[in-house]
Amino acid sequence: MNLILLHDADFISAERVVLRDRRREHIRAVHRAEVGDQLRVGRLNGLCGNGTILRSSGDELELEVRLDTPPPAPLPLTLLLALPRPKMLKRILQTVSALGVKDIYLINSYRVDKSYWSSPLLQPEQFNEQLILGLEQARDTQLPRVELRPRFKPFVEDETPELIRGTTAYVAHPGVDRACPSGTQGATTLAIGPEGGFIPYEVELLQNNGFLPVSLGERILRVETAVPVLLTRLAPVLDQ
Ligand code: SAM
């Protein structure tokens, strides 16, 4: 936890918060912070800043906070991800949240196991928990938006033309000739397939709706590896 992420319910006044949950435990056990120490804090969907510990007693930790810095810039990329198995989805949500993705569509595909759609992880309070872990890791405050699209064809035909407008859209698919570009300019949309891959019909439908198939080379990566590799590769090159 590189940032203590504060929720509206933590605030007892404009500049005071009281923490009672795993964040209090983490500050005591991992940071070993004491009264008077300063910690990096951020308000969910708001600014970042510092928090000074005023009181640490029983199951409460009180901080005075000063929030004056914007969170890091988001990654200008919309991710369409064929729904992975729940254990993998948990890790991927943390990773994409840490990497700055703000728009995530979990989509169906022929090779997505139907049972994955009834996972409790698809409840907002459960997936938000994973996204928040990613934000805390990367010192970000902006919660990503997750949309579920359990029907592939209507989603691609009816929604993606509008969704990809003003972006360059790619579908990652091993074995195609075009190499995935590095350091793209402007906004991007990226579709990533399920563990068994997109079937040819799905790649064709995406292609007919404006997506360029791209490959990372002959090594076929697991989805949870392909996701950060593709996001890093497509991310705009920043002037340091
Ligand atoms: N046998 C499947 C196939 O050939 O499509 C492998 C699927 S791979 C485990 C899962 C997803 O990760 C793919 O659908 C693709 O989106 C992405 N991926 C993995 N390795 C890739 C590569 N070398 N090039 C492009 N995409 C890749």
Describe the protein.
This protein folds into two domains: 4-69, Ribosomal Protein L25, Chain P, CATH 2.40.240.20; 77-238, Alpha/beta knot. The chain is built from six helices and twelve strands. It has helices at residues 22-29, 86-98, 124-138, 152-163, 200-208, 223-234, and strands spanning 4-6, 11-13, 16-19, 38-43, 48-57, 60-69, 75-82, 101-107, 145-149, 168-172, 188-192, 211-214. It has a six-stranded mixed beta sheet. A six-stranded parallel beta sheet has the order 9-8-7-11-10-12, sandwiched between helices. Residues 172-174, 192-193, 195-198, 215-217, 219-223, 226 line the site of S-adenosylmethionine.
Number of strands: 12
Distance between the termini: 25 Å
Averaged pLDDT, please?
Answer: 96
Q: Domains counted in the coordinates: how many?
A: 2
Q: Which CATH top level class of the largest domain fits?
A: Alpha Beta
Q: What's the arrangement of strands in the largest beta sheet?
A: 1-4-5-6-3-2
Largest sheet: 6 strands, mixed
Outline, from the CA principal axes?
A: elongated
Looking at this protein, list some descriptive labels:
240 residues, alpha/beta, Ribosomal Protein L25, Chain P, Alpha/beta knot, 2 domains, six-stranded mixed sheet, six-stranded parallel sheet, 6 helices, 12 strands, elongated, binds S-adenosylmethionine
